[in-house]
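hey so u asked for the seq, here:
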Amino acid sequence: TLQVGQSLTVNFALPVQTAMVPRLVPEADTKAAMAMNSVSYNAGRAVAPVLCVVVATVIGLSWAFTLNAISFAVFAATLLIIHPDRVEPPAQRPPAWAGILIAVRRPRITLLLAMVAAVTIAEDPILVLGPSLARQVLAVSSAWPGYFLSALGLGTVLGALLPSRPLVSVRSASERAAGSLLVLALCVIVFTWGLAAWLSAVAALVAGVAGLLTGSATQTLLLRIAGAQLAPKVMELWATAWAGSKPLASLTDGWLATTVGIR
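ran it, C-alpha cells below
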C-alpha cells in the first residue's frame, strides 16, 4: 500500500517538477538544466545503495528511512522559497486527457515519448540482470553488480558535464537524441555479451552518458513543442513513459533471461 501511495505521489509531482525546471533558467540554458534534472535522479541511484548500507550499519536501518523522509521535507521547503517565471494560466483549464490528445495530434511528441520509454527499457538490464550476469556469465564476485550500477550513475554525471550545444532546430536536436539512443543500444549489447567484467562496467558507464543525453534532449524537445501552457500535461505523459515503462521492462527482462538466457 505504501509503495502504491509513493508511486501515485511521484506521478503527481514529477510532471510539475519537470515542467518547472525551464522556468528557473534562461531559454538558452534549458537543455543543460534538463540534463542536471536527470543527473539528480541517476546520481542518487548510484550513491543511495552505498549510503543506505553505511547509515544502516552505523546508526540503524530505521534511520535510513527517517533521513530519506527528512530530505523530502528539505526540498519541499526549497520549493516554497524559489520563484520561477510566471506563466499566464489558460482561459479554460485543459481536460485530463489533453496530454493524450496532444500526442495523438502531434506524431513528433509520440515519437519523443517512445524514445523516453526506450531509454528506461534499454538501461533496465544493467539494473535487473547485473547480478545474474556477474554470477552466471562472468563468474566474478557479488560486488560487481554494484560496480555496474555505480558506473551507470557515474555516466549520467559525466554526461551532464559535457558542453551543451544550443538548440538550433527541433530536427537537429531530434537527430542528436536519436544518435545518443543508438549509442545506448550498442552499449547494452556490449554489456550483455559478458566478455569481461571491466568491459561490461565501461559499457554501463557509456550507457549512462548516452541515456542522459537522450533523456535531456527529449525533455527539452517536448517542452519546446508543447509550449509553456501545455507543458504540464505533456510532462505527465513523459512521467508515464519514463517511470511507467520500467515495470514492463523488468518483467520482460526477467522472462527473457529465464526463457532464452541472460544474453
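The CA atoms of residues 174 and 217 lie 8 Å apart. The first helix runs from residue 2 to 20.
lmk if thats what u needed
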